[in-house]
Write a structure and sequence with these properties.
- There is one protein chain.
- This protein has about 190 residues and is mainly alpha-helical.
- The strands form two sheets. The protein has a two-stranded antiparallel ribbon with strand order 1-2. The protein has a two-stranded antiparallel ribbon with strand order 3-4.
- Helix 2 crosses helix 3 and helix 2 packs across helix 4.
Length: about 190
């Protein structure tokens, strides 16, 4: 206890004061303030979750904590009404660009440096974002990028078949033509 208040500590390589309730409040307020929508958890939260999903998509990667990633999203979030894909893409580019010159990340509540000793993990995040933005998601920059091509790129980025399952090959002369599967709507009866 400190002046009648309960102090929580975070166990890491050294004991640090921690206030998880304040962190939760900070994040929830940031999501409300910055998101352009109010549906499905709000866009900033969805973008954060998708970014964390990418960071956890390969078991061999040693990435920074979800808290560090949430702080980076809060700092660099790009909102795009009705386009989570565009918001995620632009936010990931901003995070990559920022990490290219500055890997210091600070606790938004206490102001303490939370990236100390995590430089290798932040470098790994930078390297993977840089690689995938240049080699996997680069197709999104092409004005002629089809929805199917975008879904294929996101599927490869996340290393998940969720998006691939929405694409079917079209039987044509060109080998690389695809179309988007119509989603099933069980609530509609023929």
């Amino acid at each position: 206890m400190h002046d009648g208040e309960v102090i929580q500590e975070l166990a890491s390589s050294k004991w640090e004061e921690s206030d998880p309730q304040s962190i939760t409040s900070w994040y929830n307020e940031a999501v409300i303030d910055k998101s352009p929508d109010t549906n499905n958890g709000r866009q900033m939260r969805r973008v954060t979750r998708l970014g964390k999903y990418f960071m956890n998509s390969r078991s061999s990667w040693n990435m920074p904590s979800g808290f560090i990633f949430s702080v980076l999203v809060d700092e660099l979030y790009v909102k795009t009404l009705d386009r989570d894909d565009e918001s995620l893409y632009q936010t990931l580019k901003a995070i990559r660009d920022r990490l290219s010159w500055n890997k210091n990340v600070y606790n938004p509540v206490s102001g303490s440096l939370i990236s100390e000793g995590k430089e290798a993990q932040l470098t790994k995040l930078y390297d993977e974002l840089d690689f995938h933005l240049k080699n996997t998601l680069n197709v999104l920059e092409d004005s002629s990028c089809s929805q199917a091509e975008a879904l294929k790129a996101w599927s490869k980025f996340f290393k998940d078949d969720f998006f691939k399952d929405k694409i079917v090959r079209v039987a044509t002369v060109a080998d690389d033509e695809y179309e988007i599967k119509e989603t099933q709507k069980p609530w509609l009866k023929s």
